[in-house]
Amino acid sequence: DAKTTQPNSMESNEEEPVHLPCNHSTISGTDYIHWYRQLPSQGPEYVIHGLTSNVNNRMASLAIAEDRKSSTLILHRATLRDAAVYYCILRDIRGTSYGKLTFGQGTILTVHP
Amino acid sequence: EAQVTQNPRYLITVTGKKLTVTCSQNMNHEYMSWYRQDPGLGLRQIYYSMNVEVTDKGDVPEGYKVSRKEKRNFPLILESPSPNQTSLYFCATSSTRGLKNSPLHFGNGTRLTVT
């Protein structure tokens, strides 16, 4: 199963944009790119996902490179509540591969007031 | 309200004493999965289930058992717990209908300590 690589940590100031990168050079055509975040003392929560086109929702934007080998999660205005561990994972929608998921260590985002 | 409920939230036990961590969901999801989270190692998948009576190993299945007798429940069983199974455990679910738009929903975790 394809793996992802993320920086261990990043820092931002409150109300500034944050760009969290993810590399997935071995991505297959049936892999969707998912982002989750884990706030302190909580389970991970879904943020956004996409296949080829850029995606926006109320939480964030997802920018996907044209060759799909990398993606960037964009938080347009970071708040203190956005401080969390962010995970980028690949989810293969083929039935035989759908179940197995590899999370990795994620990126610890620190937001300064 | 859509929920994934894990019980207990905290558990301290001794080596060798069988235990079960329960996971229940009210979203009629086909897919359920268990993860453990350890410092420096991130989330690692233990077992997953694509539907009732269908289970498969994840990356770290040794020392664990699961069963999926009904759709809403997916218990994690430790027949003979050992200290290296001390960890934070998460259950996750998702629908397999419309695979393109089926995010994972996680429970709040179970912190297990084996002495």
Structure description:
The complex is a heterodimer of chains A (113) and B (115). Chain A is mostly beta strands and 113 residues long. Helices cover 0% and strands 46% of the residues of chain A. Chain A is built from no helices and nine strands. Chain A has strands spanning 9-13, 18-23, 31-38, 45-50, 55-56, 61-64, 70-75, 84-92, 107-112. Chain A starts with 8 loop residues before the first strand and ends with a strand. The model of chain A has no long low-confidence stretch (mean pLDDT 92). Chain B has 115 residues and is mainly beta. In chain B, 0% of the residues lie in helices and 50% in strands. Chain B contains no helices and eleven strands. In chain B, the strands form two sheets. In chain B, strands 2, 4, 5, 6, 9, 10 and 11 form a seven-stranded mixed beta sheet that branches. A four-stranded antiparallel beta sheet of chain B has the order 1-3-8-7, with no helix packed on it. The mean pLDDT of chain B is 94.
